[in-house]
Amino acid sequence: xxxxxxxxxxxxxxxxxxxxxxxxxxxxxxxxxxxxxxxxxxxxxxxxxxxxxxxxxxxxxxxxxxxxxxxxxxxxxxxxxxxxxxxxxxxxxxxxxxxxxxxxxxxxxxxxxxxxxxxxxxxxxxxxxxxxxxxxxxxxxxxxxxxxxxxxxxxxxxxxxxxxxxxxxxxxxxxxxxxxxxxxxxxxxxxxxxxxxxxxxxxx
Length: 204
Known about the structure:
Elements: E1 2-6, E2 11-16, E3 22-28, H1 34-49, E4 58-62, H2 68-85, E5 89-92, H3 94-104, E6 111-117, E7 122-129, E8 136-145, E9 155-159, H4 165-178
Parallel strand pairs: 1-4, 4-5, 6-9
Antiparallel strand pairs: 1-2, 2-3, 6-7, 7-8
Helix pairs in contact: 1-2, 3-4
C-alpha cells in the first residue's frame, strides 16, 4: 500500500493499494498554502484509510516540475513519513503521473505534451510518447513563455490544472512492476527560488 503526496500544483494526498485501488484521497486546489494544508490532509487520509504501519509499504513524492516552496513542502512531508515509518521513499515526476493517466484512459496517443502553470506567465512542458506500462519521456521538463508556447508538429498538448496523488501512486506502481528505476527525490524547480541569499558584505 502506497501513500502518495504531490504539491507541484495544489496539494494532493492519497493512499492506494498495491492493485491500484484508491483507498482514500484528499486534495486542496490552493497553490500557495501547501504548508498549512499538508498536515490536515495527511491526517484525514490516514484516518479514512485506517492504515497501520504494517500495511503501508512505500511513500511516493511528486518531484514536479513546480514552484520552489510547494515542492519543498511536499517532498519534506513525504520524507518525514517515510523515515518515521521506516519505509522507502519513491520519487516520481509529477508530469509522468498525468501522462500515464492520459495514456491509460486512451486520451493521449502518439506524442503529446503535459503542461502545467509555472506562474510568471510561463508554463512547464514535458513531451511524452504514449505507451504502456509507462509513457516514454521524449523531452524533459522545461519552461516556455505561455504566450510563445506552440507544440511541435504531431505533438498534442494537454494542460493539467492539478496532479492527482492517486495518479502519482499508479505511476510508482508501474515503475515497481516493470523494474524502471526511480529518480532521486530532488525537486524539479526549473528556475531559481524567488528568495536568494545575499552576498556577504566585505568588512574593511
